[in-house]
Amino acid sequence: MTDTHTRRGLSIRGAQRRYVKETAALAGADLDLEPGKITALLGPSGSGKSTLLRAIAGLERLDGGEIRLGDTVWAGPGRHLAPERRRVGMVFQDYALFPHLDALANVAFGLKGPDAKTIAMAQLEAAELGHKAKAFPHELSGGEQQRVALARALAPAPAIVLLDEPFSGLDRRLRQELRERTVDTLRRAGATALMVTHDADEAMAVADALALMDQGRVIQTGTPEHVWTHPHSVTAARLLGDIEVIEAFIKAGAADTPLGPVATPDFKNGCTVYVLVRPQAIRLTMAADGPFTVTRRRSAGTHLAFTIENAEGRSFTTHTPVPSTLAVGDRVDVALDEAFVTVVGA
Ligand SMILES: Nc1ncnc2c1ncn2[C@@H]1O[C@H](COP(=O)(O)OP(=O)(O)OP(=O)(O)O)[C@@H](O)[C@H]1O
């Protein structure tokens, strides 16, 4: 299938969409999808993720901006390419299978020509569902329905595959299994994919690239590692998991924080900044005269979560690898691993 995929990237510039006058669902969104890569789109509820997917698919008209695949303009001033001409495969949250068609007919639905059934069967077999070809959606489990939906999306060798929360509604174990299987299928197909998720861990686990969305704009893109360790803003940092936000004043080239000074070469003395500290950044060592006291110790599977508090009542949560001998009441010193610390303008 890889050969038939269009190896061109999708480019979105300044996409705007306003359903009602007062608020823009898309307020000038920019995004590039690299060919053959999986991009996860993460953002709070109402930030415009589904609208962006629908605009790419052509189900929503843009009020401004442009969407193009390579040199072909899909949407732009005076142009709106019909959805069926965009070669987009979609997998929705509810799978949207046709209830009156069996699995094979569902996968063959968008295919034309004499080979339709053969291609559809090959997709079903790739999904290890060849034996369920004659089953109707109500005879399939949730996970199987999702796999049929993915097979249907991939069957016409689409230029772009869009997945809107494809694993919600499944339990944790199945979700993880299906996630791995989906990523594997997309990679084998060489698909260029954009996957909406609410789940930061899921986004980081599946994606080659992350796109963070807020208030109708893409606020940051990059590899999961880079975005996680170098968020551009407090909003971006919070979208990817727990973070301490410390407002701090810069003096002598460093932000003065309760966890110690943090070098700030990009900011001038006298500025106020936000120092963003992941819980993994805070290293604890037992010290009888240390400035913090452990007030809580909680096991979180792969790590221990300690809450520490100083004399001013300022508390922080840390993630410490297991095992640790620290206990509630112990006095500790802190050091910061700057790999997990970012400074952004306030
Ligand atoms: N058909 C519609 N008519 C009016 N407003 C809409 C319509 N669809 C979406 N909106 C509004 O547009 C904004 C963006 O919605 P969208 O569904 O794109 O967000 P989302 O990021 O996908 O949210 P969620 O994560 O909750 O699915 C929201 O404020 C929403 O209320």
TrEMBL record:
Keyword Transport attributed: yes
Domain of life: Bacteria
GO MF terms held by the record: ATP binding; ATP hydrolysis activity; transmembrane transporter activity
Coiled coil location: none
Any one Pfam family match given in the protein's UniProt record, by short name: TOBE_2
UniProt keyword terms in alphabetical order: ATP-binding, Nucleotide-binding, Transport
Domain ABC transporter: 10-240
Keyword set includes Nucleotide-binding: yes
PROSITE patterns for this protein: ABC_TRANSPORTER_1, ABC_TRANSPORTER_2
Cellular component aspect of the GO annotation: ATP-binding cassette (ABC) transporter complex
Gene3D superfamilies recorded: P-loop containing nucleotide triphosphate hydrolases (3.40.50.300)
Family annotation (PANTHER family): SPERMIDINE/PUTRESCINE IMPORT ATP-BINDING PROTEIN POTA, SPERMIDINE_PUTRESCINE IMPORT ATP-BINDING PROTEIN POTA
Protein name: ABC transporter
